[in-house]
């Protein structure tokens, strides 16, 4: 089970591109550890098709150790982040200024409604997750199972932003000649 996919941040990419701000309703000092979907896919692939002494890795985990049957694998990204830390990771990876913008629950819903085509249940899940972040209930990292199963480290936020740099890089505004002429002119 993953709490928050890093790709959910793509829902705010237009705002990030247009304003250079990453708007999230998580509070100034609250933290969470976003998980890249590629990491979940990697784990699933290893579990489902990886080889072990009795066939697939999945078979070995589930059927040879009764203590693991029905157990949930909790996954998070490798790094706890506040909104400011996420924005710094984005700035560094994008080589462009990115700031965190604290927004209200209502503003988050407004942005989700305007900038994305996700269904209502997904919006509700995200808004509830943000509430958990604000309540301090997401202040943990869970990567041991991922490392044990895949022999790899999960993707940190800086690499996530590198992978999706085109979606987050701020758009440069075009300055027309009439704007240039108007600057500094006495009116």
TrEMBL record:
It comes from the Eukaryota. Gene3D superfamilies: NAD(P)-binding Rossmann-like Domain, UDP-galactose 4-epimerase, domain 1. InterPro entries: NAD(P)-bd_dom_sf. This is NmrA-like domain-containing protein. It comes from Terfezia boudieri ATCC MYA-4762.
């Amino acid at each position: 089970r993953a709490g928050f996919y890093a790709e959910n941040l793509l829902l705010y990419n237009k705002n990030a591109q247009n304003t250079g701000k990453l708007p999230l309703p998580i509070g100034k000092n609250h933290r969470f550890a976003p998980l890249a979907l590629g990491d979940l896919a990697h784990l699933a692939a290893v579990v489902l098709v990886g080889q072990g002494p009795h066939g697939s890795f999945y078979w070995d985990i589930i059927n040879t150790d009764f203590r693991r049957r029905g157990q949930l694998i909790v996954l998070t990204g490798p790094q706890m982040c506040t909104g400011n830390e996420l924005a710094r990771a984005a700035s560094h990876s994008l080589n462009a200024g990115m700031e965190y913008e604290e927004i209200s629950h209502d503003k988050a819903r407004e942005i989700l409604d305007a900038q994305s085509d996700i269904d209502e249940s997904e919006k509700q899940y995200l808004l509830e997750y943000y509430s958990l972040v604000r309540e301090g209930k997401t202040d943990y990292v869970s990567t041991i199972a991922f490392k044990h199963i895949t022999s790899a480290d999960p993707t940190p936020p800086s690499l996530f932003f590198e992978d999706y740099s085109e979606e987050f890089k701020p758009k440069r505004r075009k300055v027309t000649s009439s704007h240039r002429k108007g600057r500094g002119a006495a009116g």
